[in-house]
From TrEMBL:
Name the record gives this protein: DUF1704 domain-containing protein
Matching PANTHER family: CHROMOSOME UNDETERMINED SCAFFOLD_67, WHOLE GENOME SHOTGUN SEQUENCE, PTHR31817
InterPro entries assigned to the protein according to its UniProt record, in alphabetical order: MATCAP
Listed cofactors: Zn(2+)
Length: 442
């Protein structure tokens, strides 16, 4: 046991309610609102000019019974201890997720989505900045401002089979071992779909080397890893599946893992920012066709444009005004996770930082989880991602950037304004000369 004690009555409720949550079947929200491949095939066969028709086969009676059982469980929690408040949050979020799925295909789905994930115009920590402001800032900083002769060497993309072999080899070599199957699956619409114990890859998909590296850190080293850590908790195995209340933090962790491992590319970050814009457009009334055409006009490939537009419209209304807002929370989660680490990451807090990956949790859970760990009822995570194992390099990084965060870069940019002017105006010397370089990606 640790240095903090928990009252017996509280501990009994933690065991009882935690056990009930652990026994419950995972909701499978994303699987139930996913569009079948036939919808995509019909869209392109019809000339890309008709709104997709999607039918959501949802067991609403079963979901109503599930919600009623969860409400009964919520009412049974008695007391005001922080750990019991944490239990209420978890049960309440399960109710919200159940009601969200029950509303699939209606305008109410989008309203419930905003309650769980936020929206494109949600604000950070109650301040003035919104998700869309961060997206627009990143888009501006990433767009081409000059002309580079330098370029990356051309490389052959990995096919799905090569990616499967590469990921499977890395999973097999990992210590302690993670029980994860990597398989090809022609039924999925996304390029990659990952769960706790299986990573599925669409057979005809191809991947750049940076994309393959990012998938390892995002899907395996974050999502699968936190699920395995949660499942290994003796008292709180329900942390293997935190539900939508943990999505913002989990996606923020996954994008941070890409960023810190230097596998978050210009194209990838630009696309994440663009998805926030798509959510905003849909919230303002844009239809699936509006989103699709917007992306095509900006150079997106046909299938990429379809996939990003359907991500925003799935579960909601294709005619606009009622989107699925989950894609607005990736950058929000990244900013919140980064801000958390910048604020608390320092010598002597390694145990607390490790709580980020003890299961699928939300940032606001950390204080309660630290209390539970100190009381000896929450175990340390068995698996740590690469960025957290590299504590000796992680701590110096945030020690330095914590000071840089307070520096106004305006005077620095003014100091180098002539360089910025020259770079923006630079072009190859001869119009007819074969260009040796190419514009920056993004």
């Amino acid at each position: 046991m640790g240095s903090v004690s928990i009252e017996r009555a509280v501990l009994e409720q933690l065991d009882r309610v935690g056990g009930r949550l652990a026994q419950g079947k995972a909701l499978g929200l994303l699987e139930d609102i996913a569009w079948p491949r036939e919808v995509e095939e019909r869209f392109f066969a019809s000339g890309e000019g008709q709104l997709p028709e999607v039918e959501y086969r949802v067991d609403r009676d079963g979901l109503a019974r599930r919600a009623a059982d969860l409400r009964e469980l919520l009412r049974s929690i008695d007391g005001d201890a922080p750990a019991l408040g944490w239990l209420r949050d978890n049960v309440g979020a399960q109710i919200q997720a159940t009601e969200l799925l029950a509303a699939a295909g209606t305008r109410e789905f989008s309203a419930r989505s905003r309650e769980l994930y936020g929206s494109a115009r949600s604000r950070f920590f109650g301040g003035a900045l919104r998700n869309i402001d961060l997206a627009e800032h990143l888009t501006e900083r990433l767009r081409v401002h000059g002309w580079d002769e330098a370029s990356d060497p051309e490389e052959e993309p990995l096919d799905a089979g090569a990616l499967r072999e590469a990921l499977a080899a890395r999973v097999a070599a990992r210590r302690p071992p993670l029980d994860i199957e990597v398989a090809l699956d022609p039924r999925i619409t996304a390029k990659v779909v990952a769960g706790m114990s299986r990573v599925r890859i669409r057979p005809e998909a191809t991947f750049a080397s940076w994309e393959a590296e990012g998938l390892w850190h995002h899907e395996v080293e974050t999502h699968a890893l936190t699920a395995h850590n949660g499942a290994a908790q003796p008292r709180f195995s329900f942390l293997r599946s935190g539900g939508p209340r943990t999505t913002r933090t989990q996606e923020g962790l996954a994008i941070f893992a890409e960023l810190y491992s230097r596998s978050l590319s210009i194209g990838r970050l630009t696309r994440l920012a663009e998805r926030v814009r798509l959510v905003d457009m849909a919230e303002q009334g844009a239809s699936f066709l509006d989103l699709y055409r917007y992306l095509r006009e900006r150079g997106a490939e046909r299938r990429d444009a379809y996939f990003d537009a359907q991500r925003v419209c799935r579960g909601g209304l294709c005619e606009g005004g009622a989107p699925f807002t989950k894609d607005a929370c990736y950058l929000a989660g990244l900013l919140e996770v980064y801000a958390f680490l910048a604020a608390v990451l320092r010598g002597g807090l390694r145990d607390e930082v490790e709580l980020l990956v003890c299961g699928r949790i939300a940032l606001d859970d950390i204080a309660v989880l630290a209390e539970l760990r100190a009381a000896g009822v929450l175990e340390r995570p068995r698996y740590l991602p690469g960025w957290l194992r590299a504590w000796q390099t992680l701590l110096p990084y945030f020690a330095f950037t914590s000071f840089m965060d307070g520096i106004d870069l305006g005077p620095v940019e003014r100091h180098f304004q002539e360089l910025l002017r020259v770079a923006a105006a630079a072009r190859p010397a001869a119009e007819g000369k074969r260009r040796r370089g190419r514009p920056r990606e993004g």
